[in-house]
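Risk register update: the risk of archive-format incompatibility is retired. Evidence:
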Amino acid sequence: MIELAAEEPNSPLLPVWPEVAVGLICFGIIFFAFYKKLLPNINKTLEERREAIEGGIEKAQSVQAEARQTLDSYKELLAEARHEAARLRQEAQEQGAALIAEMRAEGQRQREEIISAGHAQIAADRKQATEQLRQDVGQLAIELAGRLVGESLEDHARQSRTIDRFLDELEEQASGSVPSPTEAGR
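Archived output:
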């Protein structure tokens, strides 16, 4: 029993020193392998990723700057196109208004020509009808006067005077004035 007392019971809190030594040796071997083999590869991979990310960021920034420039140029082109469209629309409206005014003026001029030609034609027709009527009335008056007088009134000068006198009397009667006896005796 004494022997048993000489051996101390193992405390769960106290480490076993041979196991600690073996654990430290294994940790050293793993740390050395990690430090020599894995750590450079990990650092290399991380550096490549960092460079790729930085390059990607720089590339993205350059693409973004280029996109902004392209957007600005498109906005300028769009503003110019809108300005040009507004200018063309304004020119078209002005040309349309000028064309309408020109067509109106041309229509007015043609209307005036037609009216003027119509008035001239009416005046010519009236004059011709008046002359024809004068001749017909004169001829009838001469025939009637010849029958009343009983002699031929074939003399042209006398015929013209008689016709003129007869028509003058008719015009005076039509205008409402009554001929005086001296005018009627002519």
